[in-house]
């Protein structure tokens, strides 16, 4: 593999702008600089792909006969009710912003949900009465709120909020049956993330989660009255990941996932009286990726992440025996939820050929018994024949240290004389993982551009064990960039892939990876699309919102340390724009609290000051990514236009 530090200056590949024309679309909310007008033919060609919908499962109604889903009929996703399989979707909310998380109150159809404005992520908490359609905001309207959890009998709502000082991720409890203010249940003093998981049956104790970093998370019990907390699992000395899932029915122990005893986060149970730890899935070397406990406490359901795909199991909580649910489509699973009478298991299923839809699995009387899986929603796919969608192949390629890097490869199912151009799509996080979900954008690129798409899970990705997720920490940051160089080497060995026509695409941390790849591999790339990406780690850590800063320092390094400061400045793309010699497309949301707009502005300015070609798009009513359809449509059209011109 060519060295990551190799010089990449090729005068022949430098593109210059004749002008940086600025225009606006979508009532002035979308600002485009240096981007040519999008031809009508491009808009029409992409129309079907841009009208794909989804309908993920959100909750059961109180009687268990109907379900709540979220889907988009207008510009953003809203809450709907469905009364039967394939039934009409009755819209319940009508906001201009998409709704976030939802939790139905036990023994009631009242629903708590979150919603922010303009992508700011300062989410507020609302209570919806579906029978009347009325909503009431119960948070302060200013702070950042989320992670909502009802008490077992309803009435009390625990949530995370920054209301105390705008910085700390504290836990608060609100009595929703009165107008009294929320009370502080746990104050965060260390900059880490805290969130409620479950109330005890008597509402005196709260199971809570602390998140320090991708490799360090801890669980606690909190006495609500005096705010005293008791550590259950995890500590600063023997670092491990421990994620609380549920208290058992009698509050005698709790279920959680942990990698204390191995590489992967396995399902576990700890009994409080004896402190006995049982690793339930000790024989399965994959991460737990979802969990739900039945209302009667006799059974549970959990999902595993097996090489990027999900499998579902039923668990007998008395014996800890489990059985895999057979007959599910091969794909991704989310939203596991038991119906109020525990006779059905709701879930969201997503495959390479079907968008997220809601399904119900019939359950038997015994914990491991189940029956028929019924699909309740059939999301529109713009008239596309998704049976013809291309499914990915999982490959592993060697990197600079002989470590195998997993990647999903999508190729058009067409025969042609010349190899396919390649778009490398890099996920964010960095602790995320690419999973082969339904991706209309990839199908669009294959169909309209004739391009292959490769989505690698470079080191630092989750899903492959605790050693792998830590391989890019601190001073090892650029080792993940070397994994992209190794992928370019692998592409060169594939006769049906064109090593001379390769682009990189990514968002958030993936945006940094795009910029860094352009710095180190401009001689092997043709174009790059950076979406809400980090261009300078020092300015990013300075300007990201207060409630995130300490969490990000654990991952990227503390810029207050002189050695780390110098290292971060040295590897930051905006300090190396002289090495970028390919056209760049930068996409940003003005209200982004995670990667502030200044990260985009400074890389765009630096590139232009160096005479480099850059398209720039900024949505004034968006945050960390585009959620409004009218903005997403233009963005996707512009990306296709960009690839058509430079790839």
TrEMBL record:
<keyword id="KW-0732">Signal</keyword>
<dbReference type="Pfam" id="PF02897">
    <property type="entry name" value="Peptidase_S9_N"/>
</dbReference>
<dbReference type="InterPro" id="IPR001375">
    <property type="entry name" value="Peptidase_S9_cat"/>
</dbReference>
<keyword id="KW-0720">Serine protease</keyword>
<dbReference type="InterPro" id="IPR029058">
    <property type="entry name" value="AB_hydrolase_fold"/>
</dbReference>
<dbReference type="InterPro" id="IPR011042">
    <property type="entry name" value="6-blade_b-propeller_TolB-like"/>
</dbReference>
<feature type="signal peptide">
    <location>
        <begin position="1"/>
        <end position="19"/>
    </location>
</feature>
<feature type="domain" description="Peptidase S9 prolyl oligopeptidase catalytic">
    <location>
        <begin position="437"/>
        <end position="645"/>
    </location>
</feature>
<dbReference type="InterPro" id="IPR023302">
    <property type="entry name" value="Pept_S9A_N"/>
</dbReference>
<dbReference type="Pfam" id="PF00326">
    <property type="entry name" value="Peptidase_S9"/>
</dbReference>
<protein>
    <submittedName>
        <fullName>Prolyl oligopeptidase family serine peptidase</fullName>
    </submittedName>
</protein>
<dbReference type="InterPro" id="IPR002470">
    <property type="entry name" value="Peptidase_S9A"/>
</dbReference>
<keyword id="KW-0378">Hydrolase</keyword>
<feature type="domain" description="Peptidase S9A N-terminal">
    <location>
        <begin position="100"/>
        <end position="267"/>
    </location>
</feature>
<keyword id="KW-0645">Protease</keyword>
């Amino acid at each position: 593999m060519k060295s990551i530090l190799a010089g990449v200056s090729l005068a022949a590949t430098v593109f210059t702008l004749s002008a940086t024309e600025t225009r606006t679309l979508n009532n002035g909310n979308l600002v485009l600089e240096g981007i040519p007008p999008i031809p009508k033919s491009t808009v029409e060609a992409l129309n079907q792909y841009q009208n794909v919908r989804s309908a993920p499962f959100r909750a059961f109604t109180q009687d268990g006969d109907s379900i709540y889903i979220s889907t988009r009929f207008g510009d953003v996703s809203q809450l709907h009710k469905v009364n039967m399989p394939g039934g009409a979707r009755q819209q319940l909310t009508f906001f201009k912003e998409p709704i976030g998380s939802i939790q139905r109150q036990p023994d009631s159809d009242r629903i708590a949900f979150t919603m922010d404005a303009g992508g700011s992520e300062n989410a507020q908490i609302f209570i919806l009465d579906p029978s009347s359609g009325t909503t009431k905001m119960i948070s302060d309207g200013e702070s950042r709120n989320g992670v909502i959890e009802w008490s077992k009998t309803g009435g009390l709502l625990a949530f995370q909020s920054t209301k105390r000082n705008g910085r700390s991720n504290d836990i608060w409890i609100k009595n929703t049956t009165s107008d009294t203010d929320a009370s502080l249940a746990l104050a965060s003093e260390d900059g880490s993330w805290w969130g409620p998981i479950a109330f005890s049956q008597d509402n005196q104790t709260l199971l809570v989660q602390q998140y320090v970093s991708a490799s360090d998370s801890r669980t606690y019990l909190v006495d609500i009255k005096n705010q005293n907390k008791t550590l259950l699992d995890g500590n600063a000395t023997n670092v491990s990941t421990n994620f609380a899932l549920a208290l058992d029915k009698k509050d005698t122990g709790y279920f959680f996932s942990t990698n204390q005893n191995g590489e992967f986060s396995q399902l576990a149970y700890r009994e409080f009286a004896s402190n006995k730890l049982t690793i339930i899935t000790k024989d399965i070397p994959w991460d737990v990726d979802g969990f739900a406990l039945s209302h009667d406490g006799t059974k549970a359901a959990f999902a595993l992440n097996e090489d990027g795909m999900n499998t579902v199991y039923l668990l007998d909580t008395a014996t800890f025996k489990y059985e895999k649910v057979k007959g599910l489509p091969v794909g991704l699973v989310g939203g596991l939820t038991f119906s109020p009478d525990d006779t059905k298991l709701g879930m969201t299923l997503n495959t390479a050929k079907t968008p997220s839809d809601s399904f119900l699995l019939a359950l038997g009387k015994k914990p491991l018994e189940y029956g028929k899986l019924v699909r309740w929603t059939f999301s529109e796919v713009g008239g596309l024949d998704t049976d013809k969608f291309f499914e990915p192949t999982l490959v592993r390629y060697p990197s600079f240290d002989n470590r195998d890097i997993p990647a999903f490869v999508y190729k058009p199912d067409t025969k042609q004389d010349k190899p396919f151009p390649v778009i490398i799509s890099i996920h964010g996080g960095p602790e995320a993982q690419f999973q082969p979900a339904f991706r209309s954008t990839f199908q669009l690129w294959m169909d309209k551009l004739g391009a292959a798409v490769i989505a690698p899970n470079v080191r630092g990705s989750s899903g492959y064990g605790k050693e792998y997720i830590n391989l890019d920490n601190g001073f090892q940051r650029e080792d993940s960039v070397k994994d992209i160089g190794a992928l370019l080497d692998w592409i060169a060995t594939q006769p049906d892939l064109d090593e001379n026509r390769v682009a990189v695409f990514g968002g958030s941390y993936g945006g940094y990876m795009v910029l860094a790849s352009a710095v180190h591999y401009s001689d092997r790339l043709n174009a790059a699309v950076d979406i809400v990406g980090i261009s300078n780690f020092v300015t990013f850590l300075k300007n990201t919102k207060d409630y995130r800063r300490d969490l990000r320092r654990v991952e990227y390094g503390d810029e207050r340390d002189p050695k780390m400061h110098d290292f971060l400045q040295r590897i930051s793309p905006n300090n190396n724009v002289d090495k970028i010699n390919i056209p760049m497309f930068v996409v940003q949301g003005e209200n982004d609290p995670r990667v502030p707009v200044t990260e985009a502005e400074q890389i765009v300015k630096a590139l232009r000051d160096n005479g480099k070609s850059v398209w720039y798009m900024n949505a004034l009513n968006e945050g960390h990514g585009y959620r409004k359809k009218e903005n997403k449509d233009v963005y996707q059209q512009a990306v296709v236009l960009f690839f058509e011109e430079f790839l």
